[in-house]
Design brief:
Thrombin, subunit H, 12 strands, six-stranded antiparallel β-barrel
């Protein structure tokens, strides 16, 4: 073949049609139109859904190694955490078992000592479960209403507790409900006993609410931050040993003679739903001896030595 017979003209694809710039502008405009149409009218939504269904097995197959890697790491970490929790639980269970054994031993010794000293057994406190209905509408008081009243056996002055400690005391009893005044109310008061020093005192609700005050305590009294205060049991209302509050701060005012001691209640009323209403100890104690009747002296004296008036 002679070299002069070779066709050196460009193919028709490059020789005919619009220029490259025109094609770029056209396809850019088409892409922009499709994007706007898909965003406004969901034109490509059926095709995208079909493509997603077709590619789903491929995506799942490609994700298997990644899931195995992550799942294996999480499994090993979870297994190690479960083993650590198991060891910690066993240690706590052993400690609780020791405490229970010591408590049983102390209970037996207490019973033997009471029998030896011919003391009466400890009073059994009866309780009644109740549910909190709502808080009092008065913003200047700290009171709750429970769904147990006189028909269920609730009496005036009954202590109200939860799992943390003393919450308050029943101050009004209705037929099916009762009003409970919390310890943090400004008018509330409760006798307490310092667990460290065995010193008795009285805790009152703080005026600003949310805390307690240990009033009428001398400035040089042996009270420290962190002391645990519980019920003393000598008031005839609260059983002894119930947690009440913890000493938070002490302001010893020598010039006034008394210290300002702030307490944090052990039992918080925020979010509480279920409580226990205890029977006051005064219902099980013998009645208080009444005062002797005063002997009246007759106004007219009696003359002696004469049988006649």
């Amino acid at each position: 073949m002679q070299l002069g017979t070779i066709d050196r003209t460009p193919p028709p694809f490059f020789r005919q049609g619009p220029s490259a710039l025109t094609k770029l502008i056209f396809f850019s405009a088409l892409a922009f139109f499709l994007m706007v149409a898909d965003a406004r009218f969901r034109v490509v939504e059926p095709m995208r859904a079909a493509l997603a269904i077709v590619l789903l097995p491929v995506q799942r197959a490609l994700a298997v190694p990644v899931e195995l890697w992550r799942g294996g790491g999480d499994y090993l970490q979870g297994l190690q955490g479960a083993l650590d929790d198991q060891r910690l639980t066993r240690a706590q269970l052993a400690l609780q078992s020791e405490k229970v054994a010591r408590a049983d031993q102390l209970a037996r010794e207490n019973g033997e000592l009471r029998a030896l000293l011919e003391l009466k057994p400890a009073l059994a406190v009866r309780s009644l479960a109740a549910e909190v209905l709502y808080e009092a509408a008065d913003p200047y008081s700290r009171k709750l209403f429970i769904d147990r009243g006189a028909r269920q056996g609730v009496v005036l002055g009954a202590p109200v507790i939860n799992e943390a400690g003393v919450l308050g005391q029943v101050t009004h009893v209705y037929l099916l409900t009762a009003e409970v005044t919390l310890l943090t109310d400004k008018d509330a008061a409760i006798p307490v006993l310092n667990a460290r020093t065995q010193q008795r005192a009285a805790a009152f609700g703080a005026p600003n609410g949310g805390a307690l005050e240990l009033r009428f305590t001398s400035a040089n009294a042996d009270v420290q931050a962190g002391d645990k205060l519980g019920t003393s049991g000598v008031d005839g209302i609260y059983p002894p040993g119930l947690p009440v509050a913890t000493v938070v701060s002490i302001d010893r005012r020598v010039e006034s003679g008394f210290a300002r001691i702030l307490l944090a209640p052990t039992a918080s009323a925020d979010g509480v739903r279920h409580v226990l209403v205890l029977e006051p100890l005064s219902l099980q104690l013998p009645p208080r001896p009444e005062a002797a009747t005063a002997v009246t002296v007759p106004d007219k004296p009696v003359r002696r030595g004469s049988g006649r008036p």
